[in-house]
Amino acid sequence: MKRLLQLFTWWHEATLNTLFYTWRKGILVGEDDEGNRYYRHRKGNRRWVIYNGAAEASRIPPGWYGWIHYRTDIPPTDESYQMRAWEKPHHPNMTGTPGAYRPAGSIATPQHRPEVTGDYEPWTP
Prior knowledge:
19% of the residues lie in helices and 12% in strands. By secondary structure, it is an alpha+beta fold. The protein has one domain (1-101). It has a 3-stranded antiparallel sheet. A hairpin with a 5-residue loop joins strand 1 and strand 2.
């Protein structure tokens, strides 16, 4: 089943064509804490990532983000990159899942909205 998904889908993992291209022309530059692998072309300046699991671009950590977007030519594996205090770890987008944020009063929450008090006057045209 995994090979069938690799043949027809790109969002589960890398396709067979991407893996073949990587095997032929890619040089492994490094790997991040989540298991994503980063490559560069043997002769050119092309860079790409093969995700460990679902292909979600927001899973690229800040150090690798600068390298993959050509902001720096030095990958985080070749320098002592330290995350800054304001950089946070990745949290997936939970929209459309049971873990999505639903504020109080939303129609998607099981809680009931509090009754309107006397300080509210509806607008009428």
